[in-house]
Amino acid sequence: MAPQVETSMIQLVEREAEKRELTGSEILLRSLIREKVEVIFGYPGGAVLPIYDHLYKGKIRHLLARHEQGAIHAADGYARATGKPGVVLATSGPGATNLVTGIATAMLDSVPLVCITGNVAQNLLGTDAFQEADITGITMPITKHNYLVRDVKELPSIVKEAFIIATTGRPGPVLIDIPKDVSNAKAVFSYPVELEIPGYKLPGKPDPAQLEKLYAAISEAKKPVILAGGGVVSSGAADELREFAEKSGIPVATTLMGLGGFSGNHPYWLGMPGMHGTYAANHALLECDLLIGIGVRFDDRVTMGRIDEFATRARIVHIDIDPAEIGKNVSTWTSIVGDVKTVLQAVNQNVLQSDSQAWFEKLQTWRKDHPLVYQDNSPYLKPQWVIEEIYRSTWGEAIISTDVGQHQMWVAQYYRFHHPRSLLTSGGLGTMGFGFPAAIGAKLGVPDRPVIAVTGDGGFQMTSQELALLTLENIPVKVAIINNRYLGMVRQWQEVFYEKRYCDVDLTGGPDFLKLSEAYGIRAWRAKTKEEASQAWKEAMEHPGPAVVDFWVDPEENVYPFVAPGSRLDEMVMGDE
Amino acid sequence: MRQILSVLVNNQPRVLARVASLIGQRNFNIESISVGETENPSFSRMVIVTRGDLPTITQVAKQLNKLIDVIQVEQLEKEQTVERELMLIKVEVPPDKRTEITGIIEPFRASIVDVSPQSLVVQVTGEPSKLEAMIELLRPYTILEVARTGITAVARGSVKKAAVL
Fold first, then answer.
1. Does residue A347 sit in the same domain as residue A317?
2. Fewer Cβ within 10 Å of end Cβ, chain B: N or C?
3. Does residue A267 lie within any of the structural domains?
4. ipTM metric
5. What is the number of helices (H) and of strands (E) in chain A?
6. The domain B82-152: what is its CATH number?
7. Is A535 one of the catalytic residues?
8. Which of A141, A144, A199 sits opposite B70 (nearest CB)?
9. pLDDT tens, residue by residue, B9-51
10. Which domain range does residue A85 map to?
């Protein structure tokens, strides 16, 4: 009983405090508390000084990143791992523009973020004032919506609206730009309970006629396949997807963003399709007669941009929350617009087993005959082996964040994800520097799961300054650097398409990552052989604090299978078979 | 194919920028765009003329619908739409040729809205083709300046509501 009494006392005191006029800064923070924000990632500066002055009073945890890009990727990692909105705070001008890459990253992967920036006072807006940037103009195409707050009285409803827009429908980043005079202006605080947003439309329940059409398609199909994407993860529909696949007997390919949305251990799982997809998944997409896309957007890394050759024999049924995705990249036979979880719940009520046993067996043969392979015969440590070792140490229970490039694809191929919200990766924008700070945010949001940043020696250097956060806040994130002394994916393309004219991809002589880690007070290991790698990784995982392991891997290892851009999905270079 | 979209939007700062930015970002073309407040000052109506086949125009409309400030997007069918554009055209005309001009513009139901010793401003309203014909007829005189509003349009009376996209 006691804690409840205490809470209500605090609430009483708070309510009393809110009867007086509050500044915009205080209104902002009280609004964030109302939205149950636990942690803000940010970086202070002139235009947000009034806001930081209220953060000083310590009601919300603030993590001081070392660069705004680190802050926003951390907020993004927090959001991806927890499903809750990430909140980032930056100052005007360069502070705001440093968020831009992170905002675009979140936009392309539909991650709920609320980004708060300060701006110069309104009397200076438009005068090229010191540290002024038109961040609402700049971020128009990369936010779901953005606001320039012109009156302190509007602030509570804008914050409320921002959280609604960021987290509902197809999630995405929302930016609130607050001029300094608005932060300082006073008003009586009243937080709206409910809010009508006239131009904001959310899809309702699926139409029974559409469900019937899907059932008919399933009953007529001989070669059905499900393509599941990030929408399954973000709508929390992993259980519903498993039920749908099992009831209908339809195998599942998961896109990069969909990994973990369907267990990698499930006998129905075909792997990831696309440029570096599995033989079974790619061939299934080409040969199927029914393709059920669930929470996917038929991105060019999946279709290879060859719509003319993509699933040409199939009826395509597209289930997605965003009506604009229907028909954007591929023509559909029918579509169901709605939240994937809601739709699948409705679908599962009456779905029947498909007549596709022969097809299923064919896929199993493909799976068996064409597994992912790599040659483990050079003196070098193989990056794929390192990923497998990380998998063995965690059995798919860890949250893995990645950067972008070869190591990202090896993680997607060789780490088996069993749970949603376990792979945090910049799938759409392909943002190097994302993985490590995202892991920091994820660990704060999900402290009871191991969080591992698998990164490259290139990407890690883009945001490695955030090592400071690990030490100072004692966040036990483990960093696995897949160090090939190259910008590996670019090198691979130069090898394949530019006759090995390696131009500006050599990273040898880059920093000694052990010394770099130690400079931040973080324990680090280096491994060049399997024995060293196993030992180092074991010690790093057992170490109670943050840890960095620098795996020196084969510098010229390539990612296979590989479908060249513009090729058909089955024109796969299988690699070292 | 030429398409006309009638877009009801919040009457807010920068809504025009949002709409124009989105159309550019998605690689669609704008032939013209006109904006004005509606009978309800909370809303403005934009009339956008663009080109594209049906899938393209549907995609434009869907993307516009994702903007929070867009309330409704309607596609106006050519046959069931009244479309008008206003043009002001300044022509160098010595006083002795003024009557000639009056003769030219009369069939267009255009009017002279400003007269100065060596020039006239002609105002003409109508469909874009009519405006272009007017320009051609005045070209033999020296055209000093042309300003056009871009078209605005509404569905004809018998049509209760245009196709909502």
1. yes
2. N
3. yes
4. 0.91
5. 24, 22
6. 3.30.70.1150
7. no
8. A199
9. 999 999 999 999 999 988 888 999 999 999 999 999 999 999 9
10. 23-188
